[in-house]
């Protein structure tokens, strides 16, 4: 196994099963997907709506199980993991950024960022320090006590990035992270992602519709009708 | 995730739904209190009755009336039986007494008493705990000891009415006031032909009063030799009058009317009683009676606990409902937590902890309420009954008693039921689909 590889997808197939037992129909969403992402790379994933981008990301995240194929992350074959194993693996190795942020509305910005530390079982003093540092890093030092509903979209997305970063995972998966943001906020977010990639060497896999976003990555992968069609290096 | 953080989580969750949680806790507390109070009545009455019985009996004592032979016929106890009884392990003493079957007249100078004469075996009496107030134990044929209340019966010989009209007892002024020890007592018995026989006896000691205040010992304890002399004089067993000696079979063996076995300690009584039962001895001991009373109450308690448990089960439906709603409400949050990397086990624990929390707080409040209610019942119910029926209740009667074991049983049942009722909702929480939850589809 190549130590330089962060993500290795091998002949991945995925079918969704619709309907009850007798009238089942299978729809094949991903067909024979294979690609690799090196450590420290920022890879963007593009494709038409319904082409299977989110499905691919959900498979890598372990939220759904593949019909066939292998998914290697940081040297582990994760598609055979149990739910519990995957939960622990996610906590250690992966961060998530979602289009609609997925912050817990009843928790403050501070508590949302702190959550992964709590799940990991970190002690309170260390937690507090790390969370405050992270709030500062995403430029929201004064907003720790705000609830998500009291923050703008861009601020919420930065909180969710802070939450994804707090345990310093080697891989961050993002499904249209800028989809809900205006172009100015989008630009500052992309800058932030690039900075994280350069400073901490974090690997990113970013789904996007946006040309601008796609161009920020080192490389772009495109999907059409569930198949990988091209894999190009951006300029 | 640390336990402390889990606690913090559930505190936050509960805060969000104070009223709903409070109502659920209230229902649990009421169920728990209902169970405890209900069962406490059985405990209370049992305690009162058992205490009452114990107060009147010597606990380590087993009375033996006789033995059944193979055909089920009654057999009086013989010396052979006594020797066997004495050989049983953990038997401290076997006392045997024979009461004279006629009331002799005892005369001392100008005083007389008509009272029972009892032949006793003194070494075993002493071993069973009999003690003297003054004097010593008899050593010779003609020596006797008298019971503590014998003197109360020893009244002046006079034509006047010596009895107090109200109490029926001999008036103080007529009772013998002097010393008894070393005095000579003339015992007079009669036979079927109305002939009299006088036997002079010497009092050498007076027994200690019985431990129970209301018991009176007026007996004169004679030696078995004197007892036999009386039997010889009347020609009947025990000196009984009104039976024809010729009709009795002459193979008279020495038997005992009143045999008591004393165990070393309370724990040994049951074992000895069981052994004697097996060997067809006819016995009575407080333990026998306790067994029956306790059996009766055990059934009663089990029934009441069952009824109380149903109350808790009804309350647990509330917990189930509360927890199911909590899981549904928090499904999006749970989905997010799972997406980030929360272990399903952790999520289950949080919800189980929450239902246990409701159970524990409910049980604690229930226990407090039960104690208060129990105290109220013990004070209030006698008052109500006494005014309603105009009759005073026996002293020390307790309607409701809450022993620690009852608290443990009730709290145990309460916790078990609440945890069980929280199990399914907690399981449901772990099965929440991350993607559905994040799409707010649940
Ligand atoms: N849970 C599901 N059950 C059945 N079919 C599904 C499910 N999720 C997705 N699909 C189907 O799989 C295909 C790919 O969906 P997916 O969400 O991966 O597309 P996408 O590339 O992310 O599109 P978009 O850019 O609009 O987000 C679609 O045709 C969709 O209908
Ligand atoms: Mg999508």
TrEMBL record, chain B:
<feature type="transmembrane region" description="Helical">
    <location>
        <begin position="401"/>
        <end position="423"/>
    </location>
</feature>
<feature type="transmembrane region" description="Helical">
    <location>
        <begin position="295"/>
        <end position="320"/>
    </location>
</feature>
<protein>
    <submittedName>
        <fullName>ABC transporter permease</fullName>
    </submittedName>
</protein>
<feature type="transmembrane region" description="Helical">
    <location>
        <begin position="357"/>
        <end position="381"/>
    </location>
</feature>
<feature type="transmembrane region" description="Helical">
    <location>
        <begin position="21"/>
        <end position="45"/>
    </location>
</feature>
<comment type="similarity">
    <text>Belongs to the ABC-4 integral membrane protein family.</text>
</comment>
<keyword id="KW-0812">Transmembrane</keyword>
<dbReference type="GO" id="GO:0022857">
    <property type="term" value="F:transmembrane transporter activity"/>
</dbReference>
<dbReference type="Pfam" id="PF12704">
    <property type="entry name" value="MacB_PCD"/>
</dbReference>
<dbReference type="InterPro" id="IPR025857">
    <property type="entry name" value="MacB_PCD"/>
</dbReference>
<keyword id="KW-1003">Cell membrane</keyword>
<dbReference type="GO" id="GO:0005886">
    <property type="term" value="C:plasma membrane"/>
</dbReference>
<keyword id="KW-0472">Membrane</keyword>
<feature type="domain" description="MacB-like periplasmic core">
    <location>
        <begin position="21"/>
        <end position="232"/>
    </location>
</feature>
<dbReference type="InterPro" id="IPR003838">
    <property type="entry name" value="ABC3_permease_C"/>
</dbReference>
<keyword id="KW-1133">Transmembrane helix</keyword>
<dbReference type="InterPro" id="IPR050250">
    <property type="entry name" value="Macrolide_Exporter_MacB"/>
</dbReference>
<feature type="domain" description="ABC3 transporter permease C-terminal">
    <location>
        <begin position="306"/>
        <end position="431"/>
    </location>
</feature>
<dbReference type="Pfam" id="PF02687">
    <property type="entry name" value="FtsX"/>
</dbReference>
